[in-house]
Design a protein that fits this description.
The structure holds two protein chains of two kinds. In chain A, about 0% of the residues lie in helices and about 55% in strands. Chain A is an all-beta fold. In chain A, a hairpin with a 6-residue loop joins strand 4 and strand 5. Chain B is built from no helices and eleven strands. Classes of the chains: A mainly beta, B mainly beta.
Chain lengths: ~110, ~120
């Protein structure tokens, strides 16, 4: 069955450093992958989408890579700030394409001043 | 736009009672999703509507759960009868079109507690 794995342990880093979060998947050949941010008591917020033919995507301090051979996406936040502290979720389309997303369990990021 | 609007924000009910959760998607978005989030199981897709028509309800846990979308601006998720294991945060999300190449916009969720 299709499976998405994100590190369930919190990632603690110092302000100003680069945070790197990992999303691994099995039994998928996804047409795209999405990343979301979720703050406590709120719904997830869409951040970035990367397609299967794209190796890397950037948006301000965010960078996402997509390695379809390794079946892995990396999510980087450069020059991290305490305001970046949140849970980050990756999502893949059910059945590899289409509009229904399956979410990973998320990784909690804590940026300390 | 006010975003995806869900009501109520919190609901506490007794086991066996009927619960109705409400969602107003973003105007112009023709895809609507209901998700449930728990610590143990994370975010689970319950049902997907496109142009007000249910496309996939394979995630609905059992017959106690039902969802409707009578028009493009309103959807409900009903649990009857409710059970303590239904306690979770229920999210509604919408997106502009099929294909998945745009992100979802989620509401703030309804925290349901069944005692």
């Amino acid at each position: 069955s299709q499976k998405i794995e994100q590190n369930s342990e919190a990632l603690n880093i110092q302000e100003g450093k680069t945070a790197t979060l990992t999303c691994n998947y099995t039994n998928y050949s996804p047409a795209y992958l999405q990343w979301y941010r979720q703050d406590p008591g709120r719904g997830p917020v869409f951040l970035l989408l990367i397609r299967e033919n794209e190796k890397e995507k950037r948006k301000e301090r965010l960078k996402v890579t997509f390695d379809t051979t390794l079946k892995q996406s990396l999510f980087h936040i450069t020059a991290s700030q305490p305001a970046d502290s949140a849970t980050y979720l990756c999502a893949l389309p059910r059945g590899d394409a289409g509009n229904m997303l399956t979410f990973g369990g998320g990784t909690r990021l804590m940026v300390k001043p | 736009d006010a975003g995806v609007i869900q009501s109520p924000r919190h609901e506490v009910t007794e086991m066996g009672q009927e619960v109705t959760l409400r969602c107003k998607p973003i105007s112009g978005h023709n895809s609507l999703f209901w998700y449930r989030q728990t610590m143990m199981r994370g975010l689970e897709l319950l049902i997907y509507f496109n142009n007000n028509v249910p496309i996939d309800d394979s995630g609905m846990p059992e017959d106690r759960f039902s969802a409707k979308m009578p028009n493009a601006s309103f959807s409900t998720l009903k649990i009857q009868p409710s059970e303590p294991r239904d306690s979770a945060v229920y999210f509604c999300a919408s997106s502009p079109r099929q294909g998945g190449v745009v992100g979802y916009t989620f509401g703030s969720g309804t925290r349901l507690t069944v005692v």
